[in-house]
Amino acid sequence: MKQIDYKGYLEYFNPEIHATVCVPQKFDLSQNYSDPFNPVTSIKFETPFDGIVILKISDINGKEISTLTDEYRTAGYYEMKLNLILPI
Questions:
Q1: Torsion, CA 51, CA 29, CA 83, CA 88, rounded to 10
Q2: pTM over 0.85
Q3: CA distance 46 to 25
Q4: How far is 17 from 14, CA to CA, in rounded Å?
Q5: Distance from C-alpha of 59 to C-alpha of 49, rounded to nearest angstrom
Q6: I need a labelling partner for 75 at 20 to 30 A (CA). Which of 11, 28, 33, 54 fits?
Q7: CB 45: neighbour CB atoms within 10 A?
């Protein structure tokens, strides 16, 4: 990193950067908030274990509309986009 003060003096720093990456502690599906003027919404979820993740969208009657994911995923945090425009 380079720092220049008001008098024009230069000083170089070599900071140590430490990052901790943590795994979620529980399964969680976050509330999504759709925008009536934007047909795309984000769906966030987290899983504490590696494994098959299946995320399906159903209508108010329980009829399956779409499958967002049905695949192996490692433990972590995910965000998927859902297009809310459905064919007529």
A1: 100
A2: no
A3: 9
A4: 9
A5: 28
A6: 33
A7: 19
As to burial, measured by CB atoms within 10 angstroms (0-12 exposed, 13-18 middle, 19+ buried), residue 3 is exposed
Q: Which residue has the tokens 């003060």?
A: 5
Contacts of 4 (CB under 8 A, 6+ apart): 10, 11
Give the pLDDT of residue 35: 77
pLDDT, tens only, 10-56: 888 777 777 777 889 999 999 887 777 888 888 999 999 999 999 99
Contact 21/76 with Cβ under 8 angstroms? Answer: no
- Classified as helix, coil or strand, 17 is coil
Cα dist from 36 to 28, 56, 66, 73, 87, whole Å: 25, 21, 20, 31, 17
Q: CA 81 to CA 60: how far, in whole Å? A: 20
